[in-house]
Every structure is written in C-alpha cells, then in structure tokens.
Amino acid sequence: MTITYITSLIYTQKNENIGDLLAHFINFASSGLKIILFINDNHDTSIFEHFENIKIIKWSGGLHSTQVWTSIINNEIEYALPDNRNIEKDTLEFIMNGHAKYQFIMQVIETKMWNTTHYAWIDFNLFHLFKQKTETINYLKWLDQLQLNDVFITLPGCWSALDKEKLGDIMNSVHWRFCGGFMLGDYFTMFQTAMKYNKMIVEFVETHKKLVWDFNMLAYMETFCEWSPQWYRADHNDSIVLISADLYTRPLTEISQKIVYDYPQIPDYLPASASYLYYNEKHWINTRYVNYWIYPAGAYHFNNPEKLIENKNVLSELDELTMTPISYKTVDEHVGLPVVKGISAGLEDIRLFEWGGGVKYIATSVGFSPNGRSTMIMGDYNIETGEINGGVPIQSPNQDSWAEKNWIPIVKKKEVIFGDGELKEMDELMFIYKWYPLEVGVIEDGGTNGYTKRLRIVDRVYPDNAIFSKIRGSTMFEEVDEGLLGLVHYSEEHSPRHYYHMMILLDKETFEVKKYSEPFCFEKLGIEFCIGFTVQEWEDEIDNEYVFWISRHDRDPITLFVKCNSIHLFSKANR
Asked: In the CATH scheme, what is the homologous superfamily, with its name and number, of domain 3-246?
C-alpha cells in the first residue's frame, strides 16, 4: 500500500446527519485502506475500534484549538467573510474547518504515521457525493496498488486558473478552480504545500481583510505564490477522486519486436491506425489513411483549404509468421449513401469482423450520416477484392449524441428452441456500446430521423472499478481459454492529448469484466491509438505474444510484439 488517507470529524454542520456521515464513511473504512481520523476527544470512537486500518487522533478543543483559528481569530486579525455565501452554511466555523486540514496533514507526515510514500486528504463527508460508491471506493483500492509518480501533488477542479487581473473573483464568491475535498501527493510535496498554506492564509487575511474558502485560497496560491499542482478536471461527484492517469501510467518495457511497414504513398495522405482480422486462415489489416498532420502540441494541419478530415483505407494481407504485409490495395469504397458535408469525409476507424459467412465493417462517419452528426455505419467488406459494398447508418441508443464511435462487435452464443423442440446453439451479433455501465446492444429494424436501423441496449452492468467511467474504445476481442481478450483505451486532454491502454478479459457468456491490467502506454505518453490486436501463439506457450498495431500522432504506424506474460491481468480491483 502506498497511500495514507487523512480526514477529520472535529466539526460538522448543524444540519448534517451524523448517522448518514458515519454510514458513508464506514463503507470507505471497510476498504482496508490506511486511514488517519482526527476526531474530538469527547466523541465515541467505539464504532471504529475493529478497523485495524484506522488510526484515531483525538483532538482537544475542537476548531478553536487549531493553529489557523489561533493565528487569525485569537490574534484578532481583522477579517470579513465573503459577501456572496450561504449564510446558514458558510459560517465562520465551516470556512475555518476547511483551512484547518493543513495542520492535520503536517502533523501526520511529521510523525510518519503509517509511513507511506504518498498521502491524501479526503473530506469526511465527501462520500455522500458518490453515485457509484462501491465502484469508486474500489478505484481508490486499485489506485493504492499502482506505482505512483515519485513527486507530485494533484487536485481536482472545475474551472480554469484564476486570472492575475481578477483577484476580486475569489474575495466574495466561490471560485471552483479547485473542488476542495480531496488532494493527493507524495509525502514531501504534501508537507511543503501544507506548510506554505498555513503561512499564506494568515498573510492573505492580514493583507486583504477577507477570510475566503480554502479552495479559493488554493486558487490564489496557484496564481500568485509559485505553487504548481497537477490539476485535473472533475466535479462534485465520483470524478473528484479520479486523478490524471499521467500519475501512474508507464510505458511497456518488454517489447520484443517493432516493425514499421513499407506502406505505399498516397499524395496528401498518411497511414495511421490499422484494424486486424483473421479470416479464411489468412491475416488481414485495414489501415486508415488521413489527410492531416498533428503538431507536437496537438494542433492540426490539413492538406485542404476547407480543413476537412478526409479518409482513405488500404487493405493488406499479412505473412502468417512475420505479420508483415505481402500486399497492399487501396479499398474501393461503394458505401451507396448520400454524402453530407461536414467536418469529415469517408469512413473513420474501420473495424473488421466476420459475420454471416462473410466480412463486415463498422466505422464512424460524418459524411454518410443522415443528420450530419458522427454516426456508425455498417456494411459488407469484400476481403478478396478489397471493396466496401453498401453501408447502413445505425441510430444510437442516445439520440442526443453528437459523436458516435468505438462500437465493438462481439458474438454471443445462445441456445434457441426450434419449432420441433430441438435445442440448438446459435450465434448472436452484439455490440459493446459503452463501458460504464458496460452496455451491450443488438441491431434491429427501426429508427427515426432518417435511420432505418438502431442499436437497442439489452444488457447493462457496472464494472467493479470507477476507472471504467473513463474508457471510451477498444480493439476487437479475441477468444482465449479464459474468456474474450482485448485492449481498451481512454484519454485526457493535455498538449497533445494522452492515451492510456488496458488489457481486458471478458466473460464469454455474460461479457462481464473478469480481469484487467494496469494502465500503460506503448512507448510514451501522447497520441497512441490502437484498434488492431491479436494473440500470436507459438509451440511453447511461454513464447506467445500480443501483437498491437498502433499509430503515433495519427500517423507513423508501427507494429509491436509483446510477450503475453509481461502484461499481468488481475482479478478485478482486488489484486
């Protein structure tokens, strides 16, 4: 375990239900995570006695004995509370309670309680914000087992940084640059931050005659006091504890082989991501070509004046041993749908799959959408001739969606009773629509606003870990002995965007998540996109390899071979 969680129950608001607060906290305490709880010395602590993972610090004198209260109130520093506040809730005691946490953080780290490498502050009443309490606490358990970066402090927030010219924004109203309630960092940076905060809050009140909320004070420190935490976007819900994956994602270290294919040149286009299919005892990839270039910081350069994304596709058969192309053919695309002018033309991120005795494709498209929004198109893909024949737009289960992508075809075996009473096993084509909750649907006739087919969700279940709320897409899944195996990804907005990947094992029958790996990047944090994956099996199982087809910055495709035993899959959050 790497993290100690610090919290306090020395102050509660008059309208807070202590029983409810304790019930939420007990769920967290039952996680086994290391917790240090500051509590008034007259409080009954018997409810916590059987929790070996909780250390109790009894506090005498309540808020009035804290350092910040003594420094400001007892020393009679002139102050006023913010003008635009909830008079009943945002009392002097409530605001001072937010400032007191930094004394508690310093005390815990100074005395080396639990002696972990990282410490987190978590408000005692934070847990009532969680909509998926079990999954979010499981995320915290999972996070505690990851290798975190050595040096950082990170906090969630909603708004952009405070403008130096707008200091008044924090004086009388809440400023949600930081959410408050949660922070995490290594022991040294947490201690330095707490020490700096305890000094700056007194100086701030002396200078500005205002006693603001603690999260407003943090916004001030970031802008004016040379304090640079790692900020991540969140809200006052489960996302408040979902830190940036930059803080725990590592590149793969055991890549056994890298191959760069000799792709044909197409003027004004670059090869990018490739999807994979094994069909008729042959290996195939469909490689997307794009007409833009992404600069290192993430800006786009387009090879046309309209700044229109244009897509082409190239089909390749691969050598069965080396997985290198033995042919290239530009795909003839006969989608047969009216073309709508939008931000993108053609078919994006084609995934190939076998169904109905042939090969199908599913792809994202704006240009072939009935309503000008990014939609999913499905049709026939002739693997022998390299032709796309036909396409049908599929209406999303979420009709308010503007951007549909990353639907994953997956085949489920089901038993059907025929008219003669005979029980037969049949395949049913389904699609993973989203990951949190994990929703699986079937395509059926029907639809509105120009659609004749729609995806209807038939199964919905929450994976055990709130990290799945970030996952957006994946490769196709391959059947292995234990279930269905594939690669998923999620991303965060940095400059440029960062992609993170996890191996996922699904149950063959229910599609529930059985195992998953730690997040990783392939070579480095950045735009690494992967929709092509397979398992290459050899005579000796120890030599088996995963094969990933990735693109870097939506270009520079490369094929990576990774020993299967180098990526460990763990059984849900309990590793």
From this structure: Spore Coat Polysaccharide Biosynthesis Protein SpsA; Chain A (3.90.550.10)
